[in-house]
Amino acid sequence: MSGQPKIRYGMAGGGEGAFIGAVHRMAAALDGEFALVCGAFSSDAERNRRSAEALGLDPARAYATLDALLAAEGAVPEDQRMEALAIVTPNHLHAPMAIAALDAGFHVMSEKPMALNLAEARAIAEAVARSGKLYGLAFTYSGYPLIEEARVRVARGDFGAIRLVQVEYSQGWLSEPIDREGNKQAEWRTDPARAGLGGCLGDIGTHAFQLAEHVSGLKVEQLSADLTAHVPGRRLDDDVAALLRFEGGARGVLKASQVAAGDENGLRLRIHGEKGGLDWSQMEPNTLTLRWLDRPAEIVRAGGPGLDASTMGRLRVPAGHPEGYIEAFANLYRSFGRALHADAASSPPPGAADWFPGVHDGLRTMAFVEAMIENSAGEAKWTSLAESPGRGG
To answer: Is this structure's pTM higher than 0.85?
Structure first.
């Protein structure tokens, strides 16, 4: 976007002491294409003030509520007004804030999951349609360059017809009841009123599901689920597993846990077809391993030879220099910004140079959450996923 003016954005949530708000700000700042101009960072007035001061913002543009932000920014001169809102709050605020911002004429980049449930997600999709504004979702891991390389190789048929999709996301940070011991990040994630229908399921299970569908290019048609809360007294799941049936006959396994004691952030994706398969791990993101029936395994490295042009476009440093989570996140912000400058109506489809997760990914992941909960609680062996719109958006 060389020569383009910076995109002015505001932030809802993400104030002093918050984790993900700072990550969004780093990702948005990496390419120098976004400028934070305002925010409603905290419902605590003093924390809100301190947050704005620490970020170097005009105190007059640190608003007490999102409603105040939207009303005031709508009256700011057009060349200074916020253009997009980043929503980095607990889950229960995602839908009302997104809908309010879209209806007020602002683009939205939201933390995942999209909403508390599928009905709220559909309401956001309707707001996107009537507003004509862009909506992006922070499914960060799909921004990694070698995830794009994996998607490209599956799509062009390198492995033949896909048979197996295995995705695992393993953390251990909720192995003890820290949600009842004052840990704010754990507290809201295990509270149904703020987290939504699923705990681990909504927090990291949605990441695993989105990645599996995005890279395989296949939709899950049916699933069989097992949701568990291992820590006594915990109100939402902290461990989930599912068998998956994909369109075209492929089969899959999804495992997500936040009570795998000692694990850090173990997201791993494996996909196998008739001729071979791939293996990628988020904790070693610059390596993609390819294995074949008829020849030795291959190690593909970020920045190395043989990468697709769309992968190269997502790389920022020469081969051998580590890049990871923030850069992957920044790829989503960069694509979102390019779509905004191009007056695009929605996210382009996977395969486009500037794809980013949007409405489709949000609807699919919320359908997944509801189907998982329905199946785990019921007696049916298999549960179908609700349909959602086709790719794009």
So the answer is: yes
